[in-house]
Structure formats: C-alpha cells, structure tokens
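Task: sequence design from structure.
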C-alpha cells in the first residue's frame, strides 16, 4: 500500500469576502473589480464561484480561483506544498484546495535527529 500525503484547505463565502478585502490587487488580477461584491455564490455543480457586483456578475472557474486562494495562503503564511498534485473541490458551501502526493514505496529518511534511545511520546490533543 502506498503512503498518501493529502492536505486540504477549505474556504467558505465569509473567507472569500475577507480574501477580497485583504488582497484587492490579487482579486483584480483574476478579473474581479475593485469594489466589494454584493453577493458571492459557490456553484458546486458548475465548479465555479459567482461574484455579483450590483447587476454585474463575474464567474471564476477553478484555475483562477485556485490562483487567488494560493496567493492568499502564501501571503497569510499558510503552508502550501510545492511538489504535490493540486486540485480544487467544490461543494455548495465551500471551496477546498487539495494537495496530494502518493509514495509507492516508503521514502528513505533524509533527516536524522540526534536522539538516543526509543522515540519520545507526543501529546496529540494537548494537556
């Protein structure tokens, strides 16, 4: 069985509004006007997001939307894997960036911590 490394970053409508406020220049670079949208609708079946600006509607597909979201993540300090397959998944409520790598065989460790004895335990849920 391969080792699967899968990472997901989900965004809802509120997060999209914040991203447009935080990165107006990046929003313009993907085709959105500079003003605030009056409505944002995630079209899960159409794999797109519609941004309404009064009577004017701009639809962004997966490619442009991913560019905007990745630009935001980089500027916000959210770690983005570089050597993974990338995809965008849509539901009616969220857009999810998905990063995936499959290792058919376990990679040889390249990092060797200076530690003697058995591994120490970790607290996964905190104290």
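Answer:
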């Amino acid at each position: 069985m391969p080792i699967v490394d899968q990472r997901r970053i989900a965004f809802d409508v509120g997060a999209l509004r914040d991203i447009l406020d935080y990165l107006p220049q990046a929003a313009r670079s993907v085709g959105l006007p500079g003003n605030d949208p009056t409505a944002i609708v995630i079209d899960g079946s159409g794999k797109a997001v519609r941004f309404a600006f009064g009577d004017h509607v701009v639809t962004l597909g997966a490619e442009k939307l991913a560019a905007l979201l990745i630009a935001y993540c980089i500027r916000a300090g959210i770690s983005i894997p570089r050597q993974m397959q990338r995809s965008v998944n849509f539901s009616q409520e969220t857009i999810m960036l998905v990063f995936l790598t499959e290792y058919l065989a376990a990679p040889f460790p390249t990092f060797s911590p200076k530690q003697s004895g058995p591994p120490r335990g970790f607290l996964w849920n905190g104290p």
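The first strand starts at residue 3 and ends at 11.
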